[in-house]
Amino acid sequence: MGSKHICTLEGEYLHEGKRCVCKFNITAKVTGNYKTLRMDANPKGHKRFSKTRPTLDLLKEEFRKWQEENRPPGDSLERKLTRLTEDQIIDAEKAVRYLPDGLTLIEAVEIASKQHLAMSITLSEACNKYVKIQFRDKFNKDGQWSSSKTLAEFKTVMKYPLILLGSRVIKTIQPNELPQFWNWGNKALAAHKSQKIEKVSNQTRKNRYKVLQKFFKWCFVRGYHHQNIMGEHLQISPKLKKSDKPAPKIFTNIQTDKLFAFARSNEKYVEWIPYLAFLHFAGVRPGEAHCGVIDLRKEDRKSVSPLTWNAFRLNPKIEEPYVQLPYSGKMASNRIVKLPKNLANILKLSQERGIPFYCPKITSNTMKRFRLKVGLKDSNSARHTAISNWYRQNPFTGKSATQQELTDQFGNREDTRAEFYINTETIGIAEAQRYWKIGLNWKTISTF
Predict the structure, then answer these.
(1) Stretch 299-322: mean pLDDT, rounded?
(2) Which member of 50, 81, 334, 397 has the greatest number of CB atoms within 10 A?
(3) Which class for 341: exposed (0-12), middle (13-18), buried (19 or more C-beta within 10 A)?
């Protein structure tokens, strides 16, 4: 019978001052009931190596002796007490030789281990799971997305990642493959080619980046990728320059007076006043008040509960009136919000009248129609207005608010607030003082 190849070992040695590697081939030959193992090698500049032994361990011991005699200077063969087998020691020595510069063996093992353990799931499959977990409906009451607009935004941002990478296993996606999805325009993404003539606004880039960042962080936490490819290995998210943005839109005191005068004089909108006042004078995000119910169909509204009077403390014995907000997924959403005196008065009059805090007739469409009737278009201006007035004069201290006071009340960061919320071009101290008196002297909630 012929010989059968068993394995190959690599030995290092010096030849003419150069480090060389020689392969030691181990073969087996069986004749009847007798098995012979043989190791052969032809190291350049050295004697031919040929040994025959009855077992593989004895052959490897011969290889180890040869390596000890011929190992290049500086390569110590000192063996410390270890539980590794001779094969494992040889594998480790070989692995160290192929390590990239600056990477230790244990670091390489940890990287390989994480990659091996990462679950195999495609980008398309992960997106479907993410949507099911995040979107709140009657089957998933714990979802953070209460608005269909959030779902639509996610699908829009993920359109081209799914087209180009949808069938890829997530753990194979590299960080350098992602920047195109927030830097390129739709035409460039569709053609899969960067086009200089197609400009993408900084705001659009930032919006896309945030959606992708949150999704891939979720993938990392779920074990779909061994690293957070949008968090630690990419440059920071696209920044907007203040000079590129106009001052945030806000309501003047005249506009605010007009809004509440219209609601107080119209029987259809009287029950809207508590909710409207809460947005305008507490400066909360709309979702922190309606908790997502505003975008649900009537048959689905029972699964979500907006704020009720039970959450409010309008007559506390020691502190100022306040409300404990529920968690809505936004920054510091589960916080205590103070109620200025004018807002507390409006809420008390509403409660005494038997008006619920949130009128079930308020929907996205009815809110749009209401804003058109009073000549107000921007849905976020109520929060901008409250923050800007609070910045000029804290209604509880009578002084300009500190950054910590603003963070405690509104739950956003100083840099975000300065860039997107505070309008110092329109509101001065006198305007702020007048703002915190709107509704303060009302005796009844309606004027009819």
Answers:
(1) 86
(2) 334
(3) middle
Query: Which strands make up the sheet holding 34-41, listed edge to edge?
Result: 4-15, 18-31, 34-41, 49-53
Chain segment 278-289, per-residue pLDDT in tens: 999 999 988 888
Backbone angles phi, psi at 22, to 5 degrees: -125, 140
pLDDT digits (tens, 9 = 90+) for 138-177: 788 788 887 777 888 888 889 889 999 999 988 889 888 8
Residue 171 · residue 116 · CB < 8 Å = no
**Do 167 and 299 belong to one domain?**
no
Structural domain range at position 161 = 123-244
Cα separation, 349 vs 346, whole angstroms? 5
Q: Are 123 and 161 in contact (CB under 8 A)?
A: yes
> Is the same domain home to 41 and 141?
no
Q: Where are the alpha helices (DSSP H) in 175-243?
A: 180-183, 186-191, 202-221
The residues pairing with 140 across neighbouring beta strands, listed in sequence order, are 137
Residue 139 in tokens? 């089957």
106 inside domain? no
Residue 185 has a pLDDT of 82
Number of domains in the chain: 3
Predicted confidence band at 78 (pLDDT cuts at 50, 70, 90)?
very low
Is 239 part of any domain?
Answer: yes
